[in-house]
Amino acid sequence: MAWIVLIASAVLEAVWATALGMSQGFRRLVPTVVFAVAMTVSMAGLAYAMTSLPTGTAYAVWVGIGAVLTVLIAAARGQERLTPLRAALLAGLIGCVVGLKAVS
Fold first, then answer.
1. Which positions, given as ranges, span the membrane (predicted)?
2. Which member of 5, 17, 64, 94 has the lowest number of beta carbons within 10 Å of its beta carbon?
3. What is the pLDDT along the chain (104 residues), one digit of tens a residue?
């Protein structure tokens, strides 16, 4: 159960990071509210997952998934280019996250 909560929290990390960028320094209401809600729920989920998973592993998985999804969202929105090298590096990051899960 902790792994499912952790992965959901990592997805919400990508949501709040994207919303933060869209908030234009907290000047836009809707992205600011999305940021605040997603961040609160994401942190709560991370905290819950850390009650039964090693802190370092949980945090690395949370950050890794969140970072990859944030880049993919930005690429899908046309804000960043997803070059073959960047895609390979992101795949390597996901491989490391899967590896951490496998050895935990």
1. 33-51, 58-78
2. 94
3. 999 999 999 999 999 999 999 999 999 999 999 999 999 999 999 999 999 999 989 999 999 999 999 999 999 999 999 999 999 999 999 998 888 878 87
Q: How do the domains of the chain map onto residue ranges? A: 2-103
Q: What does the block give as tokens for 34? A: 């999305």
Assigned token pair, 57: 């592993």
Place of tokens 């729920």: 41
- How buried is residue 48: exposed, middle or buried, by Cβ count under 10 Å (0-12/13-18/19+)? middle
Place of tokens 């997805």: 11
